[in-house]
Design a protein that fits this description.
- This protein has 199 residues and is mainly α.
- It has helices at 36-49, 60-72, 80-87, 93-101, 106-130, 141-149, 152-159, 181-195; strands at 2-3, 7-8, 10-15, 18-23, 135-137, 173-175.
- Strand 1 (2-3) and strand 2 form a beta hairpin.
- The N and C termini lie far apart (36 Å).
């Protein structure tokens, strides 16, 4: 489950002794709220975008969306610097993440927690659907938010699957902290294609 400029989901499986990845558009599945705040977030996304999807929250732009939602809808306090950037349409996910992890902006703290919790809920639902050997979290967002992904909010959302929680209890979650993993994969695939014998 890779969050960066968007939200990518892929199933990796072995076929003929080779690891293969099955691409999907899983990040565009409908967002699933689970309490009063996330019900309001889903409604806010529908009002703003016409549809509420996981990618609108679990991604770099999603972190900015979460911040905007908390400031505009929930009236959570934000620093003047971040409010000015938001109003100018220049707010970047990195700034929200840094301000949230350093605890210097209430809306940023809330946005980081909301994204981590949502990422956990989404990854846990995928784990429940696919029962994989391991769940990997990656993309441009993972390295910056790794401390939040190790936190209670992510873990509670990932494991909190009610009567089926035991089904994913032992599935490990690993964060991939290499930011250019997609490029490395593309380079490896290109190298493999270059060695194939053409008919």
């Amino acid at each position: 489950v890779f969050a960066g400029t968007g939200l990518g989901v892929s199933l990796v499986f072995e076929s003929g002794g080779v690891l293969r990845a099955r691409a999907s558009e899983g990040g565009h599945m409908a967002y699933a709220p689970h309490d009063e705040r996330t019900e309001r977030l889903a409604a806010w996304m529908r009002e703003r975008f016409g549809r509420a999807s996981w990618e609108r929250v679990v991604s770099g732009p999603g972190l900015v969306n979460a911040f905007r939602f908390l400031v505009e809808d929930q009236r959570i306090e934000a620093t003047r610097e971040l409010r000015v950037a938001l109003d100018a349409g220049e707010l970047e996910a990195e700034l929200v993440a840094e301000a949230g992890l350093s605890q210097r902006c209430g809306a940023s703290v809330g946005a980081v927690e909301l994204v981590a919790h949502s990422w956990g809920a989404f990854a846990g639902d995928l784990a429940l659907a696919l029962l994989p050997d391991v769940v990997f979290l990656g993309g441009g967002l993972a390295p910056g938010l790794v401390s939040a992904l190790r936190g209670e909010s992510f873990e509670r959302a990932f494991r909190g699957k009610g009567r089926l929680a035991a089904a994913i209890e032992r599935i490990p979650v690993r964060a991939l902290l290499v930011e250019d993993l997609g490029l490395r994969g593309a380079a490896r695939r290109a190298a493999a294609l270059a060695t194939e014998v053409l008919p």
